[in-house]
Amino acid sequence: AIPDPQKRLRQHNSEIVAGAERTKAK
């Protein structure tokens, strides 16, 4: 439960980008 939704969204976005980059590298 993070009180800052903006912070949570940013972290979530970072994970998505990292996942996409990993898949692209494949």
Write the SSE topology.
Elements: H1 5-25
Average of the residue pLDDT scores: 77
Instruction: Determine the structural class based on helices, strands and strand pairing.
Output: mainly alpha
User: For the terminal residues, how far apart are their CA atoms?
Assistant: 34 Å
Apparent shape: rod-shaped
**Radius of gyration, CA atoms, in whole angstroms:** 11 Å
Region (Disordered): 1-26
Write a short abstract of this structure.
With 26 residues, this protein is mainly α. Helices cover 81% and strands 0% of the residues.
What can you tell me about this protein's structure?
By secondary structure, this protein is mainly alpha-helical. The chain is 81% helix and 0% strand. It has one helix and no strands. It has one helix at residues 5-25. The model has no long low-confidence stretch (mean pLDDT 77).
Q: What labels describe this entry?
A:
single chain; mainly alpha; 26 residues; rod-shaped
